[in-house]
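Ligand: zinc ion. Inputs:
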Amino acid sequence: MKYSPHIDALIEQLQILPGVGPRSAQRMAFSLLQAERASGQKLATRIESAMTHVGHCSVCRNYAEGELCGICSNPKRQVSEQICVVESPADVAAIESTAQFKGRYFVLMGHLSPLDGLGPKEIGLDKLETMLKSQAVSELILATNPTVEGEATAFYIADIAKDLAIKVSRIAHGVPLGGELDSVDGTTLSHSFIGRQSVD
Amino acid sequence: MKYSPHIDALIEQLQILPGVGPRSAQRMAFSLLQAERASGQKLATRIESAMTHVGHCSVCRNYAEGELCGICSNPKRQVSEQICVVESPADVAAIESTAQFKGRYFVLMGHLSPLDGLGPKEIGLDKLETMLKSQAVSELILATNPTVEGEATAFYIADIAKDLAIKVSRIAHGVPLGGELDSVDGTTLSHSFIGRQSVD
Ligand SMILES: [Zn+2]
Ligand SMILES: [Zn+2]
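Predicted complex:
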């Protein structure tokens, strides 16, 4: 025992949070104890509520608090024939914040990773395939991450869509706007060349 | 609403934790949702328990789950006539881990900071003075931080103890072991000179 049973237990469990080691867990525990207790109690309640009430949308697999997520329950989005495939709910939020896309999403909640036991079924590709076969889909936009796993996942999904004669596209990768050429890694820069577009 | 009501509320409240901004709060929320729900529920329970059961030791002001902390309830420590004054429970743990000190502590839970409304009473100095007057104390060791506020607090407490003719000492400050002279700031280095000890 380092402090007292409840403090030690709290410090231990705070370390399930990403990026939190023993030292920052200790700092967090003391900060919670030193502030108004009501504020820490509110945090406990909100964690508990999220754990209990947040599930997955039955259509797109995004986080949802009922049967459907906010996007899938929107009649304007329901009629869209564009589906954008992303790895995570955070990606949905990032794309929504651009206000560029008015279609629907399909959230893989990960990417293909056979070594971790994540095959096509684990990332919902059976469900996606059923959707592509049974609904009118004019374009499937692949917005998985530009990582080895994200690219492999995109290729796998592209094959499914092509077999069903559905148009597939991949979001563009390249030098970020405002970025400088010499601060971008070589792989990104070569993607940026391969994906060059005519300016005339 | 960015995600869903419960997720947004969780992301907001996670930001009461020190060093946690919107982006890391979001990452933490998603990590909790993606892992086993039981693990997040356990975190909620442990926060709630700590908020409810952790109070302050009636003797030394350290965190405690009953009337007395683990140190003050230890008969061997109770008879010690040395009291070490520190700013925080984390300082107690740091000193305990050195196994150098077998006396008692007094935890200020802060330092004098008039601008923040922290005067002698707020950091428990009335209680400390009563203790010094009513108990046998052979030495008061001041282990507040070597910051402007910590030094000012140490001076203030030293005055109280001197009025009561109690021996007062201050922990040594200087170049950390394993540190290099030229990587230590000037104030530390001058402390290190002022506090030099004869080696004969
Ligand atoms: Zn949905
Ligand atoms: Zn105590």
